[in-house]
Design a protein that fits this description.
The chain is of the alpha/beta class. It contains eight helices and six strands; from the N terminus they run ααβαβαβββαβααα. Strand 1, helix 3 and strand 2 form a beta-alpha-beta unit. Helix 6 packs antiparallel against helix 7 and helix 7 packs antiparallel against helix 8. The chain is globular and about 50 Å long.
């Protein structure tokens, strides 16, 4: 069965938002659960600006005609990702932290607040199986905290990349006002490539979306295959999102899908 045929089966089975599993029997991941909790606290529905309208698949957040749940990669990773998400980030259809949680099994997601911190987040940061690394530009951090590579880990310990999932002004505020991060090393990335993410605009050309940052981190951790799969998955999501926005069918045999198939 090719991607298009598999999609057609999944499209007919798309479940409503309140069901426990998506159309492919996958339980909601950390970002999906955080989104549901944030929606439950909302006094009115969240309306994304300029995005696609109407019913969305709960598994991929796209309209059912462009559902891509059938091509979700299943890639084992040694690394983990911890997403600290600004208040409405989990609600945005263009949020790419969702894609990280699709691919990286050990993804954790927490809503950020200035005045309180989730005890589960503090427990995660203190868990000896993880080596937590805050991913943030080194130019804004004391030099003694900055590392350029993933430090060696002790036996049984794994890297945990902490990503501030927010707009750039929000991320700077989150970094400054989260004292529980102050004791952790800061991984500063120096990528040579240019961002390919086009669903949102950034004023700075050296800014990357959250999914791209996670891909760079996985590559630094020696998990190149997972990094390439996550990048290809982002390309597929971007293609489906933009095609839906312009009321055009997705190209299941196009470059984005071909690259993802070749990696899986």
């Amino acid at each position: 069965m090719n991607d298009k045929e598999d999609h057609q089966v999944g499209q007919k089975e798309c479940h409503k938002e309140d069901q426990k599993e998506d159309s492919h029997g996958v339980s909601p991941h950390a970002v999906s659960r955080l989104r549901a909790a944030r929606l439950a606290r909302s006094a009115k529905p969240f309306l994304a600006r300029g995005g696609i309208k109407g019913e969305r698949c709960p598994g991929c957040r796209l309209v059912p005609s462009h559902c891509m749940c059938s091509v979700r990669p299943e890639i084992p990773t040694r690394s983990g990702v911890c997403l600290l998400m600004a208040d409405i980030e989990p609600l945005k259809p263009s949020n790419t932290g969702w894609l990280i949680a699709d691919v990286v099994q050990d993804t954790y997601a927490f809503g950020w607040a200035r005045t309180e911190v989730d005890p589960a987040l503090l427990a995660l940061l203190a868990d000896p199986q993880w080596l937590p690394l805050v991913v943030f530009p080194g130019e804004f951090v004391a030099p003694e905290r900055v590392v350029q590579d993933v430090p060696p880990t002790h036996a049984g310990q794994r890297p945990l990349f902490i990503l501030l999932d927010a707009t750039w002004p929000e991320a700077r505020k989150m970094f400054r006002k989260s004292p529980y991060l102050n004791r952790l090393p800061v991984l500063s990335l120096n990528p040579e490539q240019v961002s390919r993410y086009t669903l949102r605009r950034s004023r700075r050309g050296d800014h990357f979306c959250t999914s791209e940052v996670a891909s760079l981190c996985l590559d630094l951790a020696g998990e190149a295959h997972a990094a390439h799969c996550l990048q290809a998955y982002l390309d597929v999501y971007t293609h489906h999102y933009q095609q839906a926005k312009h009321q055009l069918p997705p190209d299941w045999q196009g470059a984005a899908h071909t690259r993802l198939r070749d990696l899986k």
